[in-house]
Write a structure and sequence with these properties.
Layout (H helix, E strand, L loop, with lengths): L21 H5 L11 E6 L10 H9 L2 E5 L3 H10 L4 E2 L10 H16 L4 E6 L8 H12 L3 E4 L5 H9 L3 H4 L1 E5 H6 L9 E5 L15 H14 L4 E6 L9 E6 L13 E4 L9 H6 L4 H8 L19
Length: 315
């Protein structure tokens, strides 16, 4: 149950934040007057309140109407304190209504407020453009109807994963898929780069509250075919509270189906091997031979095949 606390809409937290101008708030020029309404989509990051940018905070505080979908009661209370117009979108989830229908209901509600010629701020957990269907749909509809609409960047669960597992996606590359999408579309795996799989605890669950673990078993079997049963992977959970450590479990693929999962669980599969190096192509694009040799002899402690997370729990 989420706790909610009403607060006065006192602008930028009792004057501690600057009030951005209309063009700064919306970032879409001045072709549409402010009186006709605008939409700004922001994210709250993963850790409660602590990862919100000053820009996002100012948008929340100064909006005529705030609609939010966040994951923890502390962030809910903070949003309500910043802006008393705030409205929770979570109650639109209802038993028997599939997720896609719910996402369209959320989109409709955002547009309903925007059509009242108001400056609307949509607030979403994490990064507002990552696994956030209503935010993209609302923004596209708003622009089609002539409103100014923009999205601000924020900290996503993937950002937290890279930091907590000690992964640099620029060193070996990284693939990223929603787990159900990964399976039903038979996505092609490149085993020489990292693989992030999202929402592994709700594979195939098109309705809220669905149960069953068939999905994780199918996922484990699929990965074993490509990586082998003994390949070690990481079950990762970013946590919303600053006083808590992330949940990181290192398990073999053969044990994945029996591993305890939560709705926050994400899977990281390290590369199986280094990619091959094409010296001929390297020369064609101008890379000196001595640079290639220097890179091969590097004393760097970083090894993308063997991540070194901040902490690991027993599986």
């Amino acid at each position: 149950m989420r706790s909610q606390r009403n607060g006065d809409h006192d602008g930028a937290a009792a004057g501690k934040l600057p009030a951005f101008s209309g063009s700064e708030l919306n970032g879409m020029g001045a072709s549409v007057s402010e009186s006709e309404g605008s939409l700004t989509i922001v994210g709250t990051g993963i850790k409660a309140v602590g990862q919100v940018t000053l820009e996002a905070q100012s948008h929340i505080a100064h909006a005529d109407k705030v609609l939010y979908l966040v994951a923890d009661p502390l962030t809910v209370a903070w949003i309500m304190q910043l802006n008393s117009s705030a409205e929770d979108l979570y109650p639109l989830y209802q038993p028997g209504i599939d997720r896609l229908t719910t996402y369209y209901l959320m989109t409709d509600r955002i547009l309903e407020c925007l059509r009242q010629k108001r400056d609307v701020c949509g607030v979403f957990y994490g990064h507002p453009g990552v696994f956030a269907f209503p935010s993209h749909e609302a923004m596209l509809r708003a622009r089609r109807e002539g409103y100014r609409a923009r999205m601000l960047p924020a900290v996503s669960a993937e950002d937290c994963l890279f930091a907590d597992l000690g992964i640099d996606p620029g060193r070996a590359g990284c693939q990223s898929y929603e787990a159900t999408d990964f399976l039903v579309h038979r996505r092609i795996i490149d085993p020489t780069c990292g693989l992030v799989l999202w929402q592994i605890s709700v594979i195939g669950h098109v309705y809220p509250g669905m149960a069953g673990t068939a999905g994780i078993s199918v996922l484990a079997d699929t990965l074993i075919e490509r990586y082998g049963a003994s390949h070690q992977v990481f079950v990762y959970e970013a946590v919303p509270y600053p006083v808590c450590d992330p949940v990181i479990r290192r398990v073999k693929l053969t044990d994945l189906a029996s591993t305890s999962l939560s709705q926050m669980s994400t899977l990281y599969v390290p590369p199986l091997a280094w990619p091959s190096f094409d010296a001929e192509v390297a020369r064609k694009i101008g890379i000196p031979d001595e640079f290639v040799t220097k890179g091969a002899e590097s004393a760097s402690l970083y090894d993308p095949l063997v991540p070194q997370p901040s902490s690991v729990e027993a599986a």
